[in-house]
Amino acid sequence: MERILEFARNRLTMIGGLGGVLGLGFVSVGPLVPTTPEAGQLEPLVAVSAEEVRTEVLSSGRTFGGILQQTSLSGNEQQGLLLAFREHASPSRLRAGTEVSLRFVRGTEQLRGVDVTVSSDELVRLERSSFGWNSSVERTPVWVDTLAVGGVIDRDLWTAVVLNPALDEMPRGDRAQVIHLLDRVFQWQLDFSRQIQRGDSYRLVFERRVRPDGSMRSGRILAAELVNSGNPLYAIWFDLHGDDVGGYYDLAGESLQRAFIRAPLEYRRISSRFNRNRYHPILKVARPHIGVDYAAGRGTPVMATANGVVTRRGVNGGYGNSVEITHANGFLTRYAHLNGFASNIGVGTRVSQGQVIGYVGMTGLATGPHLHYEMHRNGRAVDPMNIDIPAGDPIPLEARVSWTQDLQERVAILQVAPQGPVIRLAEAALPDLETVTEDRR
């Protein structure tokens, strides 16, 4: 054994020494050759998926449970799958058109998993395991896009925005959402139903989160300009508290928000104004009309115009179904002729500005569906359309540096958007930002 080990050691020593000599020879006189050989190209290999997917669509009378009954799952397995699904969603609340994707082992009827698209943003995935069925939620990914658009209002704001060629790739419903957001931004300065005129113009910077199918999950106006009768109005979004809630301010840093919004409805038309000597269409007598009537379709959401507390909810004589809300500084608002109330609204409920409290109807003394809206101050009715409401707090001094930076960036993007007719360039020119900032110090 010792002879064998000694022989092995001698052989290794010889090989190591020879290798060293050969290695040195290679370094000194060996030819230069490529160190990476050509690997060539392989033919593409197509692998067949281990699964086969069959997509079913819910329709009237066809339920999620009914689809499962058409599979090879036993009754107990179906119940286990439904229990796992209920951890994230209710089978009974799935709407017609919901897609249910069944994933089978290829070539068999063995169900491996189920995907249910419960909304545009969520999919419930059900996977078979050795202990039954596991469920999880997958959220639809989005990417952030920023658009700068503008135009002139030839007919109305709705048409000007929805038919804007710059938004052609955006789904029509998303374009309507842009109008809604623009209305919400300027709701304290303008009543879009009566003050927007032909020849007015708009520019806006719009940030949106886009799903893979091109639809919008959410959107926010970062900056906007609205020229109304030659008077330019501006709105700049600023996240004052860093909580992604933020608010809108003009170029001088003054808040656009007021204690009350101008109207409790979106896309409204005024059918009757505040008038202390109006002829009542049902009673056929002259009777004060101490509110404003907004014509709207039955079921249109009605919003609280300010923060407050519900002090009355129910039938109130000729007002029909109505809600009364008390607010700070002696204000009270009344919303009448409602078709119904929001489910979370009752006497004593605290409501916030813009919160839905009910729906347009024609209960009480009403000739058609509309909302009757009143505002009272210290027990006296006032005209909601002609009352001066103080503004909110301006940008505080400690946030001025951050505000100025955001202001300059967003106005720069705003200036990229089309401006409309040349005649309005001087009328709506953006003021010098340095001057505005200096004046506020």
CATH architecture classification name of the largest domain: Roll
Q: What's the Cα radius of gyration?
A: 34 Å
Give a count of the beta strands, DSSP E runs of length 2 or more.
23
**Name of the level-1 CATH class of the largest domain:** Alpha Beta
Beta-strand content: 25-35%
Number of discrete helical segments: 7
Distance between the termini: 96 Å
Estimated structural class: alpha+beta
- Largest sheet: number of strands, sense, barrel closure: 8 strands, antiparallel
What is the 3D form?
globular
- Average pLDDT works out at 82
Annotated CATH topology of the largest domain:
Nuclear Transport Factor 2, Chain: A
Count of structural domains: 3
Instruction: Tell me the helix content.
Output: 10-25%
Poorly predicted regions are: 11-30, 420-431, 433-441
Order of helices and strands: HEHHEEEEEHHEEEEEEEEEEEEEEEEEHH
Layout of secondary structure:
Elements (H helix, E strand, L loop, with lengths): L1 H28 L21 E7 L6 H6 L5 H11 L13 E7 L5 E7 L4 E8 L2 E8 L3 E10 L4 H6 L9 H14 L15 E10 L5 E13 L2 E8 L8 E3 L19 E4 L2 E5 L6 E4 L2 E4 L5 E3 L4 E8 L5 E6 L4 E6 L1 E4 L8 E2 L4 E5 L9 E8 L2 E3 L17 H15 L18 H8 L1
Antiparallel strand pairs: 1-2, 2-3, 3-4, 4-5, 6-7, 7-8, 8-9, 9-10, 11-14, 12-13, 14-22, 15-21, 16-17, 16-20, 17-18, 18-22, 19-21, 22-23
